[in-house]
Amino acid sequence: METREFSAIIDLAISKEEEAYDFYMELVKMVDDRAAKDALQVVAGEEKKHREFLVNYRDKGYGDTGLRMTSVVDYKIAEHLEAPEPKTGMESKDVFLIAAHREKSSNEFYLGLASIHPAGPTRDMLLTMAQEELKHKEKMEYYYANAAFPQTSGG
Predict the structure, then answer these.
(1) What are phi and psi for residue 81, nearest 5 degrees?
(2) pTM of the prediction?
(3) Residue 80 in contact with residue 24, Cβ under 8 Å?
(4) Rounded-to-integer distance, Cα 87 and Cα 136, Å
(5) Residue 69: which pLDDT band, with cuts at 50, 70 and 90?
(6) Does residue 154 belong to any structural domain of this protein?
(7) H helix intervals, 1-155
(8) How far is CA 27 from CA 31, 51, 55, 92, 113, in A?
(9) Helix (H, G, I), strand (E, B), or coil: what is residue 96?
(10) Residues 123, 53: contact at Cβ < 8 Å?
């Protein structure tokens, strides 16, 4: 792959991570629940780390180091529930559902990019980023389930 083409792909991915960070910081402003704000800020911080990883990958290369793939539980909540429109004062469960949809889209973005590349370091890196976004989706769906269906004292 040409260096220019590789750089353009990484620049696009960096842009997506910046958009994701901004998206989460905007959602923080729309929810009142402190726990939801904290969770969104954590995920925003992870998006910032993804950006840093991609910048370093583009500028210095990483080889086999950097982000590591781990197994992920895909609850498939975003696949079965529509995301509400973001608005100020929305419930935590709605914020987490919106975020899960965002992460699903990010996962699909990286999988799509990976599918058009031959086997090799660039494809591996894109698949790793797809897995990272799926981890975020897992986290947001977990938070959604806990907010939408809270435990009662009876279990």
Answers:
(1) -125, 135
(2) 0.84
(3) no
(4) 21
(5) low
(6) no
(7) 3-30, 34-60, 77-80, 92-115, 121-148
(8) 7, 19, 25, 10, 27
(9) helix
(10) no
Domain with residue 103: its CATH number is: 1.20.1260.10
Give the pair of three-digit tokens for residue 69: 């793939």
How far is residue 98 CA from its own chain's centroid?
12
User: How many domains are contained in the chain?
Assistant: 1
Q: Helix (H, G, I), strand (E, B), or coil: what is residue 126?
A: helix
Give residues with Cβ within 8 angstroms of 14, minimum separation 6: 51, 54, 55, 58
Q: Which residues lie below 8 Å from residue 76, measured CB to CB, with a gap of 6+? A: none
Q: Is the pLDDT of residue 79 over 70?
A: yes
Q: Is residue 115 part of a domain?
A: yes
Structural domain range at position 29: 3-148
- The stretch 31-40 carries a mean pLDDT of 95
The reply to whether 153 falls in a domain is: no
Q: Looking at residue 2, what is its pLDDT?
A: 65
> Is 61 within a domain?
yes
Residue 67 pLDDT grade (very low, low, confident, very high; cuts 50, 70, 90): low
CA distance 120 to 125: 9
| Per-residue pLDDT tens over the stretch 47-60 | 999 999 999 888 88
Q: Which two tokens stand for residue 37?
A: 């704000």
